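Notes, p. 3: input format for complexes.
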Amino acid sequence: MALTLKGKVALVTGSTSGIGYGIARALAAEGAAIMLNGFGDAAEIEKIRSGLAQEFSVKVDYDGADLSKPDQVAAIVQKTHDRLGSLDILVNNAGIQFVAPVEEFPEAKWEAILAINLSAVFYGMKAAIPGMKAKKWGRIINIASAHGLVASPHKVAYVAAKHGVVGATKVAGVELANDGITVNAICPGWVLTPLVEKQLEDRAKEAGTDVEAEKKKMLQESQPMLKFTTPAEIGALAVFLCSDGAATITGAPISIDGGWVAH
Ligand code: NAD
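Output follows (263 residues plus nicotinamide-adenine-dinucleotide):
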């Protein structure tokens, strides 16, 4: 198989887990060098880093930047250039969730979700664009959500941030339309990751059921297709968006949601 991303360098934020790891893996499998980022146990992260490097014979580095801090977002972009020689593909994926009605929503959670899920996308793009412009090639993929397009109750900060990500993606896509850089938003429905597992556990506790029962209910509530999208499927979509075939897709929110927003 041709390694379509050989020679490219990708920074995937929040890639120690879930969707970000799935995307990092898919890009590495196509030959891209990877800068990993995210929180977690140091030994586990090193296992992920060395595992990807060995399996796909690519350079894989890690930086633990806290994406809620604008200076650390800019710093990880610079470190990717310094350590891996370039930054061709930026995947703004790191994200958190918190669930409560608007009138009870803790202000600190609102601030944290806006900082990580939305502002980090802006700061990441701002830092990465000059280098991409200089090379006249770049791919920016912002991980939004079905909640970037429609609402659900109790997710005011998350839905606001993800709608913001879709808006920022459109603006950057339009601005960079003739610079060889595409900017798109992937909008997943339910993907079974730690972020969703936590919601399933909370729902089961509240309803006096179990996680398996809540999985079924969760899908039935919103997804015509009654199965979870996998991180590997999101990774495959990211690889496509980096390919030559996707050269004129830009500013687009792309759903991968089992029919959620079509419904
Ligand atoms: P996850 O909890 O498995 O992974 C989140 C990653 O972000 C982890 O690596 C974590 O360490 C990292 N992270 C969190 N806060 C950070 C910070 N301040 N700085 C740096 N890294 C930080 O969650 P996931 O489900 O894989 O979510 C990834 C993205 O996909 C998020 O933006 C989420 O909103 C989005 N998304 C998820 C789903 C889903 O169903 N799981 C659906 C739509 C969109």
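The pocket of nicotinamide-adenine-dinucleotide is lined by residues 13-14, 16-20, 37-40, 66-68, 93-96, 116-117, 143, 145, 188, 190-191, 193-196 (CB under 6 Å).
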